[in-house]
Amino acid sequence: MTRVVVVGGVAGGMSCAARARRLDESAEIIVLERGRHVSFANCGLPYYVGGEIVEADRLLVQTPERLRAALNLDVRTGHEVVALDAAAREVVVRTSAGEERIGYDALVLSPGAVAARPPIEGLDSLRVQTLRTVEDATGLRERVEAGARRAVVLGAGFIGLEAAEALARQGLATSVVEFAPQVLPPLEAEHAWLVQEELTRLDIAVHTGTVARSIVTGPDQDTVVLDDGTRLAADVLVLAAGVRPDTAVFEAAGVVCEQGALVVDEHGRTSLDGVWAVGDATVSVDPVTGVRRPVALAGPASRAGRLVADDILRPGRVRPIPQPLGTAIVRVGEVTAAMTGANRAALETAGIDYRTVHLHPNQHAGYFPGATQIHLSVHFRAGDGLLLGAQAVGAQGVDKRIDVLATTIRSRMVVADLIDLDLSYSPLYGQAKDAVNLAGMVGQNVLDGTLRLWYPHELERVTGSALVLDVRSRDEYSTGHLPGAVNIPHTELRDRLTEVTDAASGRPVRVLCASGVRSAIAHRVLAQAGFDSASLSGGMLTLRAALGPDATRVLTTEGEPAHA
Question: Looking at the predicted structure, is the pLDDT value of residue 564 above 60?
Answer without folding.
Answer: no
